[in-house]
Amino acid sequence: DGKPSRSVFRVLEKFANATLCEVELDTGRTHQIRVHAQHIGHPVLGDEKYGDAEANRSARHFGLKRLFLHALQFRFVLPTVAEAYLFQAPLAPELATVLERLRADVPGQRG
After folding, report:
1. Which of 42, 54, 77, 80 is the most exposed place for a label (fewest CB within 10 A)?
2. Domain count, the chain
3. For the whole model, what pTM was predicted?
């Protein structure tokens, strides 16, 4: 939509052909992480719209059947009470399995 947006990427772990990143958003634009990741040459695995078709095919061998995106935490402040609220969620089991397989660098049985 052409509006300014900012994402801060931090590398958490590197694999043979993928990198696990934490992304902090300073703005909240539609598909922001996906667009910024593609722009810097590291598209999100499983992203059929902005991603890399070859990387997505490879990721399916590790059992990935969806976007490899996870909202670890969400924080906001209600202006009426000036109190911060923080919500956290564990990594989905299917994404944890893909991470384990990437760490072992052995394609999964599913494909």
Report:
1. 80
2. 1
3. 0.82
